[in-house]
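for ur thesis appendix - Sensor-like histidine kinase SenX3. copy paste whatever u need, i formatted it the way the template wanted (i think)
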Amino acid sequence: MIHPWSIARRLFVANLLIVVVFIAIVGSATFVDARDRTYDEAGERMAGIAAAIAASPLVLDAASSPDPTGTLQPYARDVMAEADVDFVTIMAPDRTRWTHPRDEEIGRPYIGSIDAALQGGRLTEVTAGTLGPSVRTIVPVKDQAGEVKALVAVGVTVRTVDVAFAGRLPALLSIGLALLVGGSLASWFLGRYLRRVTRGWGPEQLSQLFAYYESVLHSVREGLILIDTKGRVVMYNDQAAELLGLEGAGSKDPTMPPSLAELPLEEELRDLFESGRHVKDEIILTGSRVLVVNQGPARAPGSPGTRGRTPVYGTVATLRDRTEIEALGNELETMRTLSGALRAQTHEHANRLHTMVSLLELGRTQEALDFATRDLELSQQLTDDMVSSVDEPVLGALVMGKVAEAHERGVQLDVATLGSGTVAGVAVQDLVTILGNLLDNAIDAAADGPPPRRVELTVESDEEGLDIAVHDSGAALDAQSADRLFRHGFSTKPSGPGGRGIGLALVRQAVQRLGGTLTINGRRGAKFEVFLPAAASPQKEHTP
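the 3d part is after this line
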Protein backbone atom coordinates (compact mmCIF):
# COMPACT_ATOMS: atom_id res chain seq x y z
CA MET A 1 0.00 0.00 0.00
CA ILE A 2 1.36 3.43 -0.97
CA HIS A 3 1.12 5.91 1.91
CA PRO A 4 -0.02 9.40 0.82
CA TRP A 5 2.56 11.15 2.99
CA SER A 6 5.68 12.39 1.21
CA ILE A 7 9.23 11.89 2.45
CA ALA A 8 9.36 15.55 3.47
CA ARG A 9 6.24 15.30 5.65
CA ARG A 10 7.36 12.05 7.22
CA LEU A 11 10.76 13.46 8.02
CA PHE A 12 9.23 16.64 9.44
CA VAL A 13 6.92 14.69 11.77
CA ALA A 14 9.67 12.26 12.78
CA ASN A 15 12.13 15.08 13.39
CA LEU A 16 9.54 16.99 15.41
CA LEU A 17 8.85 13.93 17.56
CA ILE A 18 12.57 13.42 18.11
CA VAL A 19 12.95 17.06 19.17
CA VAL A 20 10.00 16.79 21.57
CA VAL A 21 11.29 13.57 23.11
CA PHE A 22 14.78 15.04 23.35
CA ILE A 23 13.48 18.16 25.04
CA ALA A 24 11.41 16.05 27.45
CA ILE A 25 14.39 13.87 28.41
CA VAL A 26 16.88 16.70 28.61
CA GLY A 27 14.36 18.95 30.36
CA SER A 28 13.61 16.30 32.98
CA ALA A 29 17.29 15.67 33.59
CA THR A 30 17.95 19.40 33.76
CA PHE A 31 14.99 19.87 36.14
CA VAL A 32 16.21 17.16 38.51
CA ASP A 33 19.76 18.44 38.34
CA ALA A 34 18.68 22.03 39.01
CA ARG A 35 16.54 20.90 41.97
CA ASP A 36 19.40 18.86 43.42
CA ARG A 37 21.77 21.77 42.95
CA THR A 38 19.31 24.05 44.75
CA TYR A 39 19.13 21.68 47.71
CA ASP A 40 22.91 21.27 47.74
CA GLU A 41 23.43 25.02 47.66
CA ALA A 42 20.91 25.45 50.47
CA GLY A 43 22.75 22.83 52.54
CA GLU A 44 26.11 24.49 51.93
CA ARG A 45 24.70 27.85 52.93
CA MET A 46 23.16 26.39 56.12
CA ALA A 47 26.49 24.74 56.96
CA GLY A 48 28.31 28.06 56.64
CA ILE A 49 25.81 29.90 58.86
CA ALA A 50 25.81 27.12 61.48
CA ALA A 51 29.63 27.04 61.60
CA ALA A 52 29.73 30.82 62.06
CA ILE A 53 27.27 30.64 64.95
CA ALA A 54 29.16 27.74 66.58
CA ALA A 55 32.39 29.71 66.40
CA SER A 56 30.87 32.69 68.22
CA PRO A 57 32.19 33.07 71.86
CA LEU A 58 28.74 34.24 72.83
CA VAL A 59 27.27 30.81 72.22
CA LEU A 60 30.00 29.01 74.15
CA ASP A 61 29.67 31.38 77.13
CA ALA A 62 25.86 31.14 77.12
CA ALA A 63 26.03 27.35 77.07
CA SER A 64 27.82 27.47 80.44
CA SER A 65 25.46 30.07 81.96
CA PRO A 66 22.42 29.25 84.12
CA ASP A 67 19.96 30.72 81.55
CA PRO A 68 21.22 30.04 77.99
CA THR A 69 17.82 30.86 76.46
CA GLY A 70 17.77 34.40 77.74
CA THR A 71 21.05 35.15 75.98
CA LEU A 72 20.77 33.01 72.86
CA GLN A 73 17.11 33.48 71.84
CA PRO A 74 17.48 37.18 70.87
CA TYR A 75 20.78 36.35 69.18
CA ALA A 76 19.14 33.52 67.19
CA ARG A 77 16.29 35.76 66.05
CA ASP A 78 18.76 38.39 64.83
CA VAL A 79 20.72 35.77 62.88
CA MET A 80 17.50 34.40 61.32
CA ALA A 81 16.51 37.86 60.15
CA GLU A 82 19.97 38.73 58.80
CA ALA A 83 20.78 35.35 57.19
CA ASP A 84 17.27 34.77 55.78
CA VAL A 85 16.84 31.29 57.31
CA ASP A 86 13.70 29.72 58.74
CA PHE A 87 15.15 28.56 62.05
CA VAL A 88 18.26 28.64 64.20
CA THR A 89 18.11 26.08 67.00
CA ILE A 90 20.83 26.07 69.67
CA MET A 91 20.54 23.11 72.02
CA ALA A 92 22.22 21.23 74.77
CA PRO A 93 24.03 17.97 73.97
CA ASP A 94 20.98 16.13 75.34
CA ARG A 95 18.70 17.66 72.57
CA THR A 96 17.12 20.29 74.86
CA ARG A 97 16.33 23.35 72.78
CA TRP A 98 17.62 26.70 74.03
CA THR A 99 16.32 28.63 70.97
CA HIS A 100 13.51 28.14 68.50
CA PRO A 101 11.34 30.32 66.17
CA ARG A 102 8.38 29.24 68.29
CA ASP A 103 8.70 30.05 71.97
CA GLU A 104 6.54 27.09 73.00
CA GLU A 105 9.13 24.69 71.55
CA ILE A 106 11.93 25.99 73.78
CA GLY A 107 12.88 23.37 76.38
CA ARG A 108 11.55 20.50 74.26
CA PRO A 109 13.84 17.91 72.66
CA TYR A 110 15.25 18.57 69.16
CA ILE A 111 13.82 16.38 66.35
CA GLY A 112 16.57 15.12 64.09
CA SER A 113 19.92 13.35 64.01
CA ILE A 114 22.68 14.65 66.31
CA ASP A 115 25.06 11.64 66.51
CA ALA A 116 27.53 13.03 63.95
CA ALA A 117 27.58 16.41 65.70
CA LEU A 118 28.14 14.82 69.11
CA GLN A 119 31.20 13.09 67.66
CA GLY A 120 32.57 16.47 66.49
CA GLY A 121 31.41 16.25 62.85
CA ARG A 122 28.90 18.04 60.66
CA LEU A 123 25.62 16.68 59.29
CA THR A 124 23.38 18.08 56.54
CA GLU A 125 20.03 16.39 55.96
CA VAL A 126 16.49 16.84 54.72
CA THR A 127 14.08 15.81 57.43
CA ALA A 128 10.74 16.75 58.95
CA GLY A 129 10.62 18.84 62.09
CA THR A 130 8.21 21.09 63.95
CA LEU A 131 8.17 23.51 60.99
CA GLY A 132 7.72 20.74 58.44
CA PRO A 133 10.29 19.24 56.04
CA SER A 134 13.44 21.29 55.96
CA VAL A 135 17.06 21.33 54.80
CA ARG A 136 19.22 21.65 57.90
CA THR A 137 22.82 21.42 59.02
CA ILE A 138 23.88 20.66 62.60
CA VAL A 139 27.37 21.40 63.92
CA PRO A 140 28.93 21.11 67.43
CA VAL A 141 30.04 23.94 69.70
CA LYS A 142 33.35 22.96 71.34
CA ASP A 143 35.37 24.42 74.12
CA GLN A 144 39.16 24.77 74.09
CA ALA A 145 39.57 21.18 75.21
CA GLY A 146 37.48 19.97 72.24
CA GLU A 147 34.54 18.91 74.35
CA VAL A 148 31.10 19.40 72.84
CA LYS A 149 29.22 21.92 74.96
CA ALA A 150 26.27 22.64 72.63
CA LEU A 151 24.82 21.96 69.22
CA VAL A 152 23.70 24.45 66.55
CA ALA A 153 21.10 23.53 63.90
CA VAL A 154 20.35 25.98 61.08
CA GLY A 155 17.85 25.29 58.31
CA VAL A 156 15.28 26.41 55.80
CA THR A 157 12.01 24.70 55.05
CA VAL A 158 11.58 22.72 51.82
CA ARG A 159 8.88 25.17 50.82
CA THR A 160 11.45 27.98 50.88
CA VAL A 161 13.92 25.90 48.82
CA ASP A 162 11.19 25.13 46.30
CA VAL A 163 10.40 28.84 45.99
CA ALA A 164 14.07 29.49 45.21
CA PHE A 165 14.09 26.63 42.73
CA ALA A 166 10.93 27.98 41.06
CA GLY A 167 12.90 31.10 40.20
CA ARG A 168 15.04 28.98 37.88
CA LEU A 169 12.13 27.38 36.04
CA PRO A 170 11.52 30.27 33.59
CA ALA A 171 15.08 29.94 32.33
CA LEU A 172 14.67 26.18 31.91
CA LEU A 173 11.37 26.64 30.11
CA SER A 174 12.90 29.30 27.85
CA ILE A 175 15.71 26.93 26.87
CA GLY A 176 13.24 24.12 26.16
CA LEU A 177 11.02 26.41 24.10
CA ALA A 178 14.04 27.68 22.14
CA LEU A 179 15.09 24.09 21.41
CA LEU A 180 11.56 23.24 20.29
CA VAL A 181 11.31 26.25 17.98
CA GLY A 182 14.82 25.71 16.58
CA GLY A 183 14.21 22.01 15.99
CA SER A 184 10.86 22.71 14.34
CA LEU A 185 12.39 25.33 12.03
CA ALA A 186 15.24 23.00 11.12
CA SER A 187 12.73 20.22 10.39
CA TRP A 188 10.64 22.58 8.30
CA PHE A 189 13.57 23.80 6.21
CA LEU A 190 14.81 20.25 5.73
CA GLY A 191 11.32 19.11 4.76
CA ARG A 192 11.01 21.98 2.29
CA TYR A 193 14.32 21.02 0.68
CA LEU A 194 13.35 17.35 0.46
CA ARG A 195 9.93 18.27 -0.93
CA ARG A 196 11.63 20.22 -3.70
CA VAL A 197 14.17 17.48 -4.42
CA THR A 198 11.73 14.54 -4.33
CA ARG A 199 8.87 16.54 -5.90
CA GLY A 200 6.58 15.57 -3.02
CA TRP A 201 6.84 11.82 -3.64
CA GLY A 202 6.83 9.22 -0.92
CA PRO A 203 9.42 6.47 -0.52
CA GLU A 204 7.08 3.83 -1.95
CA GLN A 205 6.50 5.96 -5.05
CA LEU A 206 10.24 6.57 -5.45
CA SER A 207 10.94 2.87 -5.07
CA GLN A 208 8.35 2.08 -7.72
CA LEU A 209 9.76 4.80 -9.98
CA PHE A 210 13.30 3.45 -9.61
CA ALA A 211 12.05 -0.03 -10.47
CA TYR A 212 10.44 1.32 -13.64
CA TYR A 213 13.60 3.22 -14.61
CA GLU A 214 15.74 0.15 -13.97
CA SER A 215 13.49 -1.95 -16.17
CA VAL A 216 13.54 0.67 -18.91
CA LEU A 217 17.33 0.98 -18.80
CA HIS A 218 17.79 -2.76 -19.28
CA SER A 219 15.05 -3.20 -21.86
CA VAL A 220 15.79 -0.41 -24.36
CA ARG A 221 17.89 -1.38 -27.36
CA GLU A 222 19.79 1.91 -27.38
CA GLY A 223 22.85 2.44 -25.26
CA LEU A 224 22.39 4.96 -22.44
CA ILE A 225 25.21 6.53 -20.44
CA LEU A 226 25.00 9.25 -17.76
CA ILE A 227 28.02 11.40 -16.84
CA ASP A 228 28.08 13.84 -13.93
CA THR A 229 29.69 17.29 -13.91
CA LYS A 230 32.97 15.83 -12.59
CA GLY A 231 33.37 13.45 -15.52
CA ARG A 232 32.29 10.32 -13.66
CA VAL A 233 30.09 7.69 -15.29
CA VAL A 234 27.27 7.30 -12.79
CA MET A 235 25.14 4.93 -14.88
CA TYR A 236 25.10 2.98 -18.13
CA ASN A 237 22.83 0.22 -19.33
CA ASP A 238 23.64 -3.20 -20.80
CA GLN A 239 23.51 -2.01 -24.41
CA ALA A 240 25.96 0.82 -23.72
CA ALA A 241 28.32 -1.61 -22.00
CA GLU A 242 28.19 -3.87 -25.07
CA LEU A 243 28.67 -1.06 -27.60
CA LEU A 244 31.53 0.57 -25.69
CA GLY A 245 33.17 -2.58 -24.37
CA LEU A 246 32.62 -1.66 -20.73
CA GLU A 247 31.90 -5.15 -19.36
CA GLY A 248 33.97 -5.52 -16.20
CA ALA A 249 35.51 -2.05 -16.52
CA GLY A 250 35.58 0.57 -13.78
CA SER A 251 34.77 0.40 -10.08
CA LYS A 252 32.11 -2.00 -8.80
CA ASP A 253 31.24 0.28 -5.87
CA PRO A 254 28.10 2.31 -6.78
CA THR A 255 29.20 5.07 -4.40
CA MET A 256 32.46 5.48 -6.37
CA PRO A 257 31.53 5.65 -10.06
CA PRO A 258 34.44 5.35 -12.51
CA SER A 259 35.77 8.40 -14.32
CA LEU A 260 35.90 8.61 -18.10
CA ALA A 261 39.70 8.27 -17.94
CA GLU A 262 39.34 4.84 -16.28
CA LEU A 263 37.14 3.38 -19.03
CA PRO A 264 38.46 1.90 -22.32
CA LEU A 265 36.88 4.52 -24.58
CA GLU A 266 38.04 5.84 -27.94
CA GLU A 267 39.70 9.25 -27.69
CA GLU A 268 37.09 10.91 -29.90
CA LEU A 269 34.23 9.49 -27.85
CA ARG A 270 35.90 10.40 -24.55
CA ASP A 271 36.46 13.97 -25.75
CA LEU A 272 32.78 14.21 -26.70
CA PHE A 273 31.63 12.99 -23.28
CA GLU A 274 34.03 15.28 -21.43
CA SER A 275 32.97 18.33 -23.44
CA GLY A 276 29.30 17.88 -22.52
CA ARG A 277 28.29 19.66 -25.71
CA HIS A 278 24.87 19.14 -27.25
CA VAL A 279 25.02 16.86 -30.30
CA LYS A 280 22.35 15.24 -32.43
CA ASP A 281 22.91 12.13 -34.54
CA GLU A 282 26.70 12.51 -34.60
CA ILE A 283 28.55 9.53 -36.03
CA ILE A 284 31.52 8.23 -34.01
CA LEU A 285 33.78 5.35 -35.09
CA THR A 286 34.84 3.08 -32.21
CA GLY A 287 36.88 0.01 -33.01
CA SER A 288 34.76 -2.11 -35.31
CA ARG A 289 31.53 -0.18 -34.72
CA VAL A 290 29.88 2.88 -36.21
CA LEU A 291 27.87 4.63 -33.47
CA VAL A 292 25.28 7.36 -33.72
CA VAL A 293 25.51 9.55 -30.62
CA ASN A 294 22.97 12.00 -29.20
CA GLN A 295 24.00 13.99 -26.14
CA GLY A 296 22.40 16.69 -24.04
CA PRO A 297 22.43 18.13 -20.52
CA ALA A 298 20.79 16.23 -17.67
CA ARG A 299 18.59 18.88 -16.06
CA ALA A 300 16.35 18.64 -13.05
CA PRO A 301 12.62 18.95 -13.80
CA GLY A 302 11.21 22.41 -13.20
CA SER A 303 9.32 23.06 -9.97
CA PRO A 304 7.83 26.16 -8.29
CA GLY A 305 10.73 26.42 -5.84
CA THR A 306 13.44 26.65 -8.50
CA ARG A 307 12.32 30.12 -9.79
CA GLY A 308 13.06 29.14 -13.36
CA ARG A 309 16.60 27.96 -12.58
CA THR A 310 17.01 24.23 -13.10
CA PRO A 311 20.31 22.69 -11.95
CA VAL A 312 22.38 20.65 -14.40
CA TYR A 313 23.56 17.32 -13.00
CA GLY A 314 25.73 16.35 -15.97
CA THR A 315 25.09 14.96 -19.45
CA VAL A 316 23.12 12.05 -20.82
CA ALA A 317 24.10 10.35 -24.07
CA THR A 318 22.33 7.73 -26.17
CA LEU A 319 24.16 5.37 -28.52
CA ARG A 320 22.83 3.52 -31.57
CA ASP A 321 24.76 0.91 -33.49
CA ARG A 322 24.92 1.84 -37.17
CA THR A 323 27.62 -0.62 -38.22
CA GLU A 324 25.35 -2.88 -40.26
CA ILE A 325 23.60 0.08 -41.88
CA GLU A 326 26.95 1.57 -42.92
CA ALA A 327 28.05 -1.79 -44.29
CA LEU A 328 24.85 -2.03 -46.33
CA GLY A 329 25.34 1.56 -47.45
CA ASN A 330 28.85 0.78 -48.65
CA GLU A 331 27.60 -2.25 -50.54
CA LEU A 332 24.83 -0.16 -52.08
CA GLU A 333 27.33 2.52 -53.08
CA THR A 334 29.48 -0.16 -54.68
CA MET A 335 26.50 -1.44 -56.63
CA ARG A 336 25.73 2.12 -57.73
CA THR A 337 29.33 2.54 -58.85
CA LEU A 338 29.20 -0.68 -60.82
CA SER A 339 25.83 0.26 -62.27
CA GLY A 340 27.17 3.65 -63.30
CA ALA A 341 30.22 2.02 -64.78
CA LEU A 342 28.04 -0.35 -66.79
CA ARG A 343 26.00 2.56 -68.09
CA ALA A 344 29.17 4.43 -69.01
CA GLN A 345 30.62 1.37 -70.68
CA THR A 346 27.35 0.76 -72.52
CA HIS A 347 27.46 4.31 -73.85
CA GLU A 348 31.15 3.96 -74.75
CA HIS A 349 30.66 0.57 -76.40
CA ALA A 350 27.70 1.95 -78.34
CA ASN A 351 29.94 4.69 -79.72
CA ARG A 352 32.63 2.19 -80.64
CA LEU A 353 30.08 -0.16 -82.18
CA HIS A 354 28.71 2.68 -84.30
CA THR A 355 32.24 3.48 -85.38
CA MET A 356 32.89 -0.11 -86.42
CA VAL A 357 29.53 -0.32 -88.24
CA SER A 358 30.30 2.89 -90.08
CA LEU A 359 33.72 1.56 -91.13
CA LEU A 360 32.11 -1.63 -92.39
CA GLU A 361 29.49 0.33 -94.32
CA LEU A 362 32.30 2.31 -95.93
CA GLY A 363 33.96 -0.93 -96.95
CA ARG A 364 36.94 -0.51 -94.65
CA THR A 365 36.73 -3.97 -93.18
CA GLN A 366 40.37 -4.25 -92.13
CA GLU A 367 40.31 -0.91 -90.28
CA ALA A 368 37.11 -1.92 -88.46
CA LEU A 369 38.72 -5.22 -87.46
CA ASP A 370 41.87 -3.49 -86.18
CA PHE A 371 39.78 -0.98 -84.18
CA ALA A 372 37.76 -3.76 -82.53
CA THR A 373 40.89 -5.78 -81.78
CA ARG A 374 42.65 -2.87 -80.07
CA ASP A 375 39.56 -2.04 -78.02
CA LEU A 376 39.24 -5.66 -76.90
CA GLU A 377 42.90 -5.88 -75.99
CA LEU A 378 42.71 -2.73 -73.84
CA SER A 379 39.70 -3.95 -71.85
CA GLN A 380 41.04 -7.48 -71.56
CA GLN A 381 44.44 -6.24 -70.34
CA LEU A 382 42.83 -4.31 -67.44
CA THR A 383 40.68 -7.30 -66.54
CA ASP A 384 43.57 -9.74 -66.74
CA ASP A 385 45.81 -7.49 -64.62
CA MET A 386 43.25 -7.24 -61.79
CA VAL A 387 42.35 -10.93 -61.86
CA SER A 388 46.01 -11.97 -61.87
CA SER A 389 46.85 -9.67 -58.94
CA VAL A 390 43.90 -10.40 -56.66
CA ASP A 391 41.84 -13.50 -57.15
CA GLU A 392 38.59 -11.68 -56.40
CA PRO A 393 36.24 -10.79 -59.27
CA VAL A 394 34.26 -8.26 -57.19
CA LEU A 395 37.41 -6.22 -56.55
CA GLY A 396 38.31 -6.31 -60.24
CA ALA A 397 34.81 -5.21 -61.18
CA LEU A 398 35.02 -2.37 -58.66
CA VAL A 399 38.26 -1.05 -60.13
CA MET A 400 36.95 -1.34 -63.67
CA GLY A 401 33.87 0.62 -62.63
CA LYS A 402 36.03 3.30 -61.03
CA VAL A 403 38.06 3.55 -64.24
CA ALA A 404 34.91 4.29 -66.21
CA GLU A 405 33.66 6.75 -63.56
CA ALA A 406 37.01 8.58 -63.57
CA HIS A 407 36.96 8.76 -67.37
CA GLU A 408 33.52 10.41 -67.26
CA ARG A 409 34.82 13.05 -64.83
CA GLY A 410 37.87 13.82 -66.92
CA VAL A 411 40.32 11.93 -64.71
CA GLN A 412 42.70 9.28 -65.99
CA LEU A 413 42.88 6.29 -63.64
CA ASP A 414 46.04 4.23 -64.21
CA VAL A 415 46.15 0.77 -62.66
CA ALA A 416 49.36 -1.16 -62.01
CA THR A 417 49.23 -4.67 -60.60
CA LEU A 418 52.09 -6.78 -59.31
CA GLY A 419 52.15 -10.29 -57.96
CA SER A 420 49.43 -12.87 -57.89
CA GLY A 421 47.47 -15.00 -55.48
CA THR A 422 44.78 -14.42 -52.92
CA VAL A 423 44.81 -12.42 -49.66
CA ALA A 424 44.11 -14.88 -46.86
CA GLY A 425 41.91 -13.69 -44.02
CA VAL A 426 40.66 -10.50 -45.70
CA ALA A 427 36.92 -10.32 -46.46
CA VAL A 428 35.90 -8.92 -49.82
CA GLN A 429 33.60 -6.42 -48.07
CA ASP A 430 36.61 -4.91 -46.29
CA LEU A 431 38.56 -4.71 -49.55
CA VAL A 432 35.64 -2.95 -51.23
CA THR A 433 35.39 -0.51 -48.32
CA ILE A 434 39.10 0.30 -48.32
CA LEU A 435 39.74 0.47 -52.07
CA GLY A 436 36.39 2.03 -52.99
CA ASN A 437 36.68 4.91 -50.50
CA LEU A 438 40.34 5.56 -51.35
CA LEU A 439 39.54 5.73 -55.07
CA ASP A 440 36.47 7.92 -54.50
CA ASN A 441 38.53 10.34 -52.43
CA ALA A 442 41.36 10.37 -54.99
CA ILE A 443 39.04 10.88 -57.98
CA ASP A 444 37.28 13.77 -56.17
CA ALA A 445 40.63 15.39 -55.33
CA ALA A 446 41.98 14.97 -58.86
CA ALA A 447 38.78 16.27 -60.47
CA ASP A 448 38.97 19.43 -58.34
CA GLY A 449 42.65 19.99 -59.17
CA PRO A 450 44.35 21.49 -62.24
CA PRO A 451 45.13 19.35 -65.31
CA PRO A 452 46.55 16.87 -65.96
CA ARG A 453 44.09 15.09 -63.69
CA ARG A 454 45.36 11.63 -62.87
CA VAL A 455 44.97 8.90 -60.27
CA GLU A 456 47.46 6.05 -59.96
CA LEU A 457 46.41 2.76 -58.34
CA THR A 458 49.03 0.17 -57.48
CA VAL A 459 47.98 -3.22 -56.16
CA GLU A 460 50.59 -5.80 -55.12
CA SER A 461 49.86 -9.11 -53.45
CA ASP A 462 52.26 -11.80 -52.22
CA GLU A 463 52.50 -14.36 -49.44
CA GLU A 464 52.95 -11.59 -46.81
CA GLY A 465 49.80 -9.69 -47.71
CA LEU A 466 48.34 -7.01 -49.91
CA ASP A 467 49.80 -3.55 -50.65
CA ILE A 468 47.51 -0.85 -52.03
CA ALA A 469 48.76 2.60 -53.05
CA VAL A 470 46.49 5.36 -54.37
CA HIS A 471 48.13 8.59 -55.61
CA ASP A 472 46.14 11.52 -56.97
CA SER A 473 47.15 14.77 -58.66
CA GLY A 474 44.94 16.97 -56.51
CA ALA A 475 45.96 19.70 -54.10
CA ALA A 476 48.69 18.89 -51.61
CA LEU A 477 47.69 18.27 -48.00
CA ASP A 478 49.16 20.40 -45.22
CA ALA A 479 50.47 18.77 -42.05
CA GLN A 480 47.38 19.75 -40.01
CA SER A 481 44.96 18.31 -42.58
CA ALA A 482 47.01 15.11 -42.87
CA ASP A 483 46.82 14.65 -39.11
CA ARG A 484 43.02 15.14 -38.98
CA LEU A 485 42.16 13.49 -42.30
CA PHE A 486 41.15 10.14 -40.81
CA ARG A 487 38.89 11.61 -38.13
CA HIS A 488 35.20 11.27 -38.74
CA GLY A 489 33.57 14.50 -39.89
CA PHE A 490 36.70 16.05 -41.40
CA SER A 491 36.59 16.84 -45.10
CA THR A 492 38.43 19.23 -47.41
CA LYS A 493 35.28 19.51 -49.55
CA PRO A 494 32.30 21.77 -48.77
CA SER A 495 29.47 20.18 -46.86
CA GLY A 496 26.58 18.83 -48.80
CA PRO A 497 23.89 16.18 -48.81
CA GLY A 498 24.87 12.65 -48.07
CA GLY A 499 27.38 13.51 -45.35
CA ARG A 500 31.08 14.21 -45.53
CA GLY A 501 34.15 12.91 -43.76
CA ILE A 502 33.13 9.31 -43.12
CA GLY A 503 34.83 7.53 -46.06
CA LEU A 504 38.45 7.77 -44.92
CA ALA A 505 37.38 7.21 -41.31
CA LEU A 506 35.81 3.92 -42.39
CA VAL A 507 39.03 3.05 -44.24
CA ARG A 508 41.07 3.60 -41.10
CA GLN A 509 38.60 1.54 -39.07
CA ALA A 510 38.74 -1.38 -41.49
CA VAL A 511 42.56 -1.30 -41.70
CA GLN A 512 42.90 -1.26 -37.92
CA ARG A 513 40.43 -4.13 -37.56
CA LEU A 514 42.44 -6.20 -40.07
CA GLY A 515 45.73 -5.48 -38.29
CA GLY A 516 47.14 -3.47 -41.21
CA THR A 517 48.81 -0.08 -41.57
CA LEU A 518 47.68 3.11 -43.26
CA THR A 519 49.99 6.03 -44.12
CA ILE A 520 49.61 9.22 -46.10
CA ASN A 521 52.11 11.35 -48.00
CA GLY A 522 50.94 14.91 -48.53
CA ARG A 523 53.54 16.01 -51.11
CA ARG A 524 52.43 16.60 -54.75
CA GLY A 525 48.87 15.59 -54.15
CA ALA A 526 47.93 12.85 -51.70
CA LYS A 527 49.27 9.33 -51.66
CA PHE A 528 47.58 6.72 -49.45
CA GLU A 529 49.43 3.48 -48.77
CA VAL A 530 47.70 0.50 -47.19
CA PHE A 531 49.21 -2.80 -46.14
CA LEU A 532 46.99 -5.72 -45.13
CA PRO A 533 48.77 -8.80 -43.77
CA ALA A 534 47.75 -12.17 -45.18
CA ALA A 535 47.04 -13.57 -41.70
CA ALA A 536 45.09 -10.63 -40.29
CA SER A 537 44.55 -10.45 -36.52
CA PRO A 538 41.61 -8.31 -35.44
CA GLN A 539 43.06 -7.95 -31.93
CA LYS A 540 46.16 -6.24 -33.26
CA GLU A 541 45.60 -2.61 -34.08
CA HIS A 542 47.99 0.02 -35.34
CA THR A 543 47.23 3.68 -35.26
CA PRO A 544 48.25 5.44 -38.47
